[in-house]
Amino acid sequence: MAKKELCVRLIVDECHVSMAASMLGLTLSPEEQDKKFYNRDEPLAVDVSEMSDGDKESEMGMTMAFALFVIAKDAEKEENNG
Asked: pTM of this prediction?
């Protein structure tokens, strides 16, 4: 099967993003941080195989976790609307 882009948006704590940037020695103004992490011209797309460092079991596990999360959120939404 071909690879496809899974439509998932991550909601994160800004403090954790600031801490990560700081750990890498990045000093960003609030405006720079906003543009770099939250309001990019184009969203960042990452192949799960890059995140798993080529480990097929990790790749499958991460993909399944995201897919199951999407399924659970959809079911929760339907339950709340029905």
From this structure: 0.69
